[in-house]
Amino acid sequence: MFELSVVPAYGRVYNSKAAIWSDWTADKDFQITGIGPNSGRYVNQQDAAASGLACVLVRYGKRLEKTCSINLIKNRIN
Length: 78
Description:
The structure is a single chain. By secondary structure, the protein is of the alpha+beta class. It has one domain. It has 2 helices and 6 strands. The protein has helices at residues 17-25, 45-51; strands at residues 3-8, 30-32, 42-43, 55-60, 66-71, 76-77. The protein has a 6-stranded mixed sheet with strand order 3-2-1-4-5-6. The longest helix has 9 residues, at 17-25.
């Protein structure tokens, strides 16, 4: 799998990429979205690194109207 789409878990709301990056590097959970067997499960930085993913797409904002990507190969947020 190349990429994974996630949203903030446990009711967290992010308004900036910096806040997402802070929680991602603190190994906080995000919830997997989409259709498939992993939909609804939780993932964090450690899980994503172990799975061989290249990118995590994060939807954020009050209505999840914004998106950003976390590049797991270069370890940075775009």
